[in-house]
């Protein structure tokens, strides 16, 4: 695996194209002119990732009111994402990064310590990208509790 530099505040967000729930391909540049909340998570239907998705769902209308779109990315397949999205009534697209290419571009696919073993996995991270495609906020090693509210607060202060 190539080690890529982590995306930082002030950088142009790396563009990507990924398959999305609801059909089709989503490309980051299609959201130029809007803010984007790009959040990376490990796996559908796990407790932390479900709580995070539900928190973003519950604050979705407030997030949209700031002019932002939410996009969730994990390594799960589109089929698994569709079931997860329907089960929890998520109003935003989930994108499938099966080969971890986008996770590597953003520096979130890392070696982690799980129960004393080193494994490669997604470090829960969120990026806020402005209307010009510039990263304005980076949240790494996210703790789920209160995270969606912190993202909303950051969006509100960026006016």
Automatic annotation (TrEMBL):
<dbReference type="InterPro" id="IPR013766">
    <property type="entry name" value="Thioredoxin_domain"/>
</dbReference>
<keyword id="KW-0560">Oxidoreductase</keyword>
<dbReference type="InterPro" id="IPR050924">
    <property type="entry name" value="Peroxiredoxin_BCP/PrxQ"/>
</dbReference>
<comment type="similarity">
    <text>Belongs to the peroxiredoxin family. BCP/PrxQ subfamily.</text>
</comment>
<dbReference type="InterPro" id="IPR036249">
    <property type="entry name" value="Thioredoxin-like_sf"/>
</dbReference>
<keyword id="KW-0676">Redox-active center</keyword>
<dbReference type="InterPro" id="IPR024706">
    <property type="entry name" value="Peroxiredoxin_AhpC-typ"/>
</dbReference>
<protein>
    <recommendedName>
        <fullName>thioredoxin-dependent peroxiredoxin</fullName>
        <ecNumber>1.11.1.24</ecNumber>
    </recommendedName>
</protein>
<dbReference type="GO" id="GO:0034599">
    <property type="term" value="P:cellular response to oxidative stress"/>
</dbReference>
<feature type="domain" description="Thioredoxin">
    <location>
        <begin position="7"/>
        <end position="159"/>
    </location>
</feature>
<dbReference type="GO" id="GO:0045454">
    <property type="term" value="P:cell redox homeostasis"/>
</dbReference>
<keyword id="KW-1015">Disulfide bond</keyword>
<dbReference type="InterPro" id="IPR000866">
    <property type="entry name" value="AhpC/TSA"/>
</dbReference>
<dbReference type="GO" id="GO:0008379">
    <property type="term" value="F:thioredoxin peroxidase activity"/>
</dbReference>
<comment type="subunit">
    <text>Monomer.</text>
</comment>
<keyword id="KW-0049">Antioxidant</keyword>
<feature type="active site" description="Cysteine sulfenic acid (-SOH) intermediate; for peroxidase activity">
    <location>
        <position position="49"/>
    </location>
</feature>
<dbReference type="GO" id="GO:0005737">
    <property type="term" value="C:cytoplasm"/>
</dbReference>
<comment type="function">
    <text>Thiol-specific peroxidase that catalyzes the reduction of hydrogen peroxide and organic hydroperoxides to water and alcohols, respectively. Plays a role in cell protection against oxidative stress by detoxifying peroxides and as sensor of hydrogen peroxide-mediated signaling events.</text>
</comment>
<dbReference type="Pfam" id="PF00578">
    <property type="entry name" value="AhpC-TSA"/>
</dbReference>
<keyword id="KW-0575">Peroxidase</keyword>
């Amino acid at each position: 695996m190539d080690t890529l530099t982590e995306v930082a505040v002030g950088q142009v967000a790396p563009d990507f194209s990924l398959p999305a729930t609801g059909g089709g391909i989503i490309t980051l540049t299609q959201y130029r002119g809007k803010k984007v909340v790009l959040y990376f998570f490990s796996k559908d239907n796990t407790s932390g990732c479900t709580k995070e998705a539900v928190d973003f769902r519950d604050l979705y209308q407030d997030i949209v009111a700031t002019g932002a779109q939410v996009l969730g990315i994990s390594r799960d397949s589109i089929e698994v994402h569709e079931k997860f999205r329907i089960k929890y009534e998520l109003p935003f697209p989930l994108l499938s990064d099966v080969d971890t290419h986008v996770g590597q571009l953003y520096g979130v696919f890392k070696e982690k310590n799980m129960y004393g073993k080193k494994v490669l996995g997604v470090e829960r991270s969120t990026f806020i990208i402005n209307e010009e495609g510039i990263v304005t906020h980076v949240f790494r090693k996210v703790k789920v509790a209160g995270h969606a509210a912190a993202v909303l607060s950051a969006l509100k202060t960026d006016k």
